[in-house]
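Morning, I've got a small favour to ask if you have a moment. I'm working through a protein record and want to make sense of it properly. The fold is given in discrete form, as structure tokens running alongside the sequence. Can you walk me through what the tokens say about the fold? Thanks so much in advance, here it is:
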Amino acid sequence: MKLKEIIFVLLFPAFFFSCMTQPKNIAYFQDLDSYKQKHQNVSETVSYEPIIKNHDELLITVSAPVLNQLKVAQFNLPMTAYLSAGEESNVQQSPSFLTFTVEHDGCINYPVIGRIQLAGLTKSKAIERIKDLVSEHVDEPVVTIKIMSFQVTVLGEVMKPGPIPVKTEKITILDAIGAAGDMTIYGNRKNVLLIRENNNGTNDYIRFDLTSSDLFSSPYYHLQQNDKIVIEPSKTRQLDSKYGVADSYKLSVYSMIFSAVSIIASTAVAIISISKK
């Protein structure tokens, strides 16, 4: 009987540590199943359209039926060419598009028409406004707008922090974090900060919990140009930052030694106690 008790005491610490739960708050959208049941009859797609902002660089093109080509040309900026040096015998010309800059007052200076207020409009509304004005000079114009300066920035606990160009003018928080190489294991998934610049010079500060599926229903799920996402470090990371690499290594070694000594001491005391019975 005593032998069985001794074996139990020896195996109990190993059993205890093997049953420890996995770290929490690492997986994204931990409540996804319940979220899907709750929203099974509701579309999860959040409508999105880019909004023109101050300092945007816009590529605006106007086209029309063949008979109006000469009239249309005056509304399009010409393409420019610049020399890119290669080998001495191979100098090439690379075409480049000129763009319209949305100035601090929200206007662009457009040929023939003059200043047009675009900041604060969705892209489709901006197209309609330019089309209405151009229609006074050209029949049946077709207007397109592309935001050439669209980018977002991801900072903090990600693998590749920095700016991310967005050619499609559409990007979600998940897309941005994925483009930055995903969060590190030390990223705080429950307190992600989004900083959004407004045309009036103010900023919005919105926080997200990426372990919650409510993100999919957020009006901030889709990002706008110049948005900044900040991934804060976890408490473990903040604690580690107080020590150097050598100090952290020493601390982990000391901790392991202390834990091992504690287990051995506890086991020895238990064995002695059982043996005296």
